[in-house]
Design brief:
The chain is an alpha/beta fold. The protein folds into two domains: 2-88 and 257-265, Nucleotidyltransferase, domain 5, CATH 3.30.420.40; 118-254, Nucleotidyltransferase, domain 5 (2-Layer Sandwich), CATH 3.30.420.40. Helices cover 39% and strands 23% of the residues. It has nine helices and twelve strands. The strands form three sheets. The protein has a five-stranded mixed β-sheet with strand order 3-2-1-4-5, sandwiched between helices. The chain has a five-stranded mixed β-sheet with strand order 8-7-6-11-12, sandwiched between helices. Strand 4 (48-52), helix 2 (56-63) and strand 5 (68-69) form a beta-alpha-beta unit. The longest helix has 26 residues, at 190-215. The two termini are 13 Å apart. The structure holds adenosine-5'-triphosphate and magnesium ion (MG).
């Protein structure tokens, strides 16, 4: 009986096996880390606890019993391998992009993995920019409102610049995120702004992921992280933009629990 925890910058993810031995999950916001610790104490009194992520020490201090800690990237990549095996996805080498609070990019081959880099644009950017521009700070509300949004008066496509000409690169590529704002000075809908914020985040992480894949001879990109939870606008942006850029995208089911699963299996 054991439990795996990924205590990230925004959310604490927990993986364990239930009485039927099925893989099960739980999550808590980091602002409720004390509640997460209490939940673990209550449900896993005698169990081994394996923790990964940047808030591992903070959680350990609250748990007040021995824990095992694991390097976040090892846990995440192992959890991803497990999920991909379970979901019978191809085991060709791929680029793994973890869109958490920030974004981390890895190269994953059958037996090995290494971190390629990362960027500060991620789920935290989505939350922060959305709040600054619209005053909305509830994640579910941001996602819901963005669904009705239209990016065309905020963002500039290549085809907008190459008006009436055949552009040298696909016209549907974004030439400039938020680059159309000054040309269209009208009152703006929150929905349009939020759609463009998600577009900016999605296209930025896609662009560096595709470049990382190209540079490392991989054609497939696997996306994980809680930023995709219930967020079909981000999901669609990333999937469509990855295809437009010539790579093969997968948004891994339960991928946000990869770190916790890797910790559990370790
Ligand atoms: P990191 O790995 O960078 O330390 P993390 O592991 O906490 O951070 P994730 O849990 O993968 O990051 O993703 C956090 C992001 O998921 C948030 O920034 C937000 O965009 C999104 N998100 C999804 N559900 C929620 C929620 N209920 N509350 C807040 N953010 C959420
Ligand atoms: Mg994380």
């Amino acid at each position: 009986n054991s439990v795996g925890v990924d205590a990230g910058g925004t959310l604490i993810k927990i993986a364990y096996r239930n009485d039927q031995q099925e893989l099960s999950f739980e999550k808590f916001p980091v602002s409720e880390i004390a509640m997460a610790a209490a939940w673990i104490q209550e449900h896993f009194a005698g169990a081994e606890i394996c923790v990964t992520g940047g808030k591992a020490k903070q959680l350990h201090d609250l748990l007040n019993r021995p824990i095992r800690t694991l390097v976040e990237f090892d846990a995440t990549c192992n959890g991803v391998q497990y999920l991909m095996d379970m979901q019978k996805l191809s085991d060709e080498p791929f680029v793994l992009t973890n869109v958490g609070t920030g974004t981390s990019i890895h190269f994953v081959d059958k037996q090995k993995h290494h971190r390629l880099g990362g960027i500060g644009v991620g789920g935290g950017t989505l939350m922060g920019l959305s709040f600054l521009l619209t005053g909305i700070q509830n994640y579910a509300e941001i996602v819901e409102v963005s669904r009705q949004g239209n990016r065309k008066f905020i963002d500039l496509k290549v085809s907008d610049i190459y008006e009436g000409m055949v552009p040298p690169i696909p016209g549907d590529l974004t030439a400039s995120n938020f680059g159309n704002v000054l040309q269209h000075q009208t009152t703006r809908q929150n929905s349009d702004i939020l759609a463009s914020v998600i577009g900016l985040v999605g296209e930025t992480i896609t662009t560096i992921s595709v470049q990382a894949a190209t540079q490392n001879g991989a054609s497939s990109i696997v996306y994980i992280g809680s930023s995709f939870i219930g967020n079909d606008v981000l999901r669609d942006t990333v999937v469509n933009y990855t295809v437009l850029r010539g790579a093969v995208p997968t948004v891994l089911r339960n991928g946000e629990y990869s770190g916790a699963i890797g910790a559990l299996m370790s």
